[in-house]
Amino acid sequence: MREKIGVVGAGIVGLAVARELATVRGAEVTVLEKEGRVGAHQTGHNSGVVHAGIYYPPGSLKARLCREGVALLKEYCAAHGVAYQEVGKLVIASTRAERPRLSALAERARANGVPGIAELDALALREIEPHAVGVGAVHSPYTAICDFPAVARRLALDVAELGGSVRLGYPVRAIRERAGRVEVLAGRRRHVFDQLVVCGGLGTDAVARMAGAPGNVRIVPFRGEFYALKGAARDLVRGLVYPVPDPRYPFLGVHLTRQVDGRVLVGPNAVLALAYEGYRWRNFRNIGQILGWPGTLRMARSHWRTGLREVRGSLLKSAFVSDARRYVPELTAADLERAPGGVRAQAVARDGRLLDDFVVDVHGKVVLVRNAPSPAATSSLAIARHIAGIVPALVR
Ligand SMILES: Cc1cc2nc3c(=O)[nH]c(=O)nc-3n(C[C@H](O)[C@H](O)[C@H](O)COP(=O)(O)OP(=O)(O)OC[C@H]3O[C@@H](n4cnc5c(N)ncnc54)[C@H](O)[C@@H]3O)c2cc1C
Fold this sequence. Notes:
The chain has helices at about 10-25, 60-80, 100-110, 120-130, 150-160, 205-210, 285-290, 295-300, 305-315, 315-325, 375-390, and strands at about 5-10, 30-35, 50, 85, 90-95, 120, 135-140, 145, 165-170, 170-180, 180-185, 190-195, 195-200, 215-230, 240-245, 255-260, 265, 270, 335-350, 360-365, 365-370. By secondary structure, the chain is of the alpha+beta class. The strands form four sheets. Strands 5, 6, 7, 14, 15, 16, 17, 18 and 19 form a nine-stranded mixed beta sheet that branches. The protein has a six-stranded mixed beta sheet with strand order 9-2-1-13-21-20, with helices on both faces. A three-stranded antiparallel beta sheet has the order 3-8-4, with helices on one face. Strand 10 and strand 11 (about 180-185) form a beta hairpin. The chain is globular and about 65 Å long. It starts with a strand and ends in a 6-residue tail after the last helix. About 50% of the residues are buried. Bound molecules: flavin-adenine dinucleotide. Flavin-adenine dinucleotide binds near residues 10, 13, 43, 49 and 202.
């Protein structure tokens, strides 16, 4: 009999996991998704950048799965005609004080095996991005952009072609393990699986609680707001322009990113949201759970200055514009219009630490992806391989 595996969440990670399990294990997979379409949350609301692996500590899961993920994704997009363009990326130091961090980044990128890394001076960076300024930059010529929602839709087709199913409009409401199997109540139907993999993004904690695995970390949502460049201002950026990130945070700072459809996004910032799907300021739906987690307040106490700066950038367009103008000074407020934002699912520990690496836990017959922030879209196909190696083999 075919092994039956359930996957919660039809984001790019859940769909990649389902495809991998159907392919390598020959499992009959069922993906349960509460929304009416695939990629409705983080997968459909991100910067669209295929990260090359510059930032992550060598030896971390992020470093390894990002590099593997890039190779798999590039091949997958080519095989299925999904847009993928190596537009290249500059990480720009705007002050001399940032130079040592820039050099450290170049070293880390080389240690991670990122190809083509070059350190450029103020003049050379303008040959790559003629409208950008800085005292120096790291150039990653193969950093790419991709249509992640299209990848997710294609993965869903693969799952169906492999005999599995993607059930949309099926919110998972209850989970229990019984007689060595996992019963899942989703929508109005009861499903019985041999194993369950949870890739619930912003909904992870709720599903973990249903599985009796609350764990030691919680998802804290960080809204990422974007603007888009209008008209001729789009020509001010050829590829991807990033600041030197603050090493204390997993977020990369407001950047300018060309999209596969020709738009150029500016953002995202990182504002603590008070609802898991807090796409708007006024949504306080999960305030109790989010502020009730001791890690949230501890994090806020340690990082209140940065938090206030992010809030300022959220409320004042001028603050957002001045961040972008540090790298592309020709930009004016009139060049930017609001664009839809996203919400990151970022795991935070009880002591307030923002978890940097990907985290996957096993609880009985349930495998839980606890932390899959950026670059999880880039790494999705490699994360899927990693998880397929973790899901215990079926013993009947
Ligand atoms: C603003 C922003 C910018 C980013 N930029 C990049 C980037 O440039 N490059 C990159 O690689 N990554 C980027 N990321 C990160 C990337 O988007 C995510 O890491 C990735 O999409 C995670 O995929 P996922 O499948 O885990 O989560 P999601 O896409 O969020 O999918 C989780 C799914 O689970 C479903 N779900 C939750 N609870 C339940 C339930 N109870 N029952 C059924 N279904 C449920 C949700 O509806 C959702 O569809 C960015 C993220 C954000 C927010």
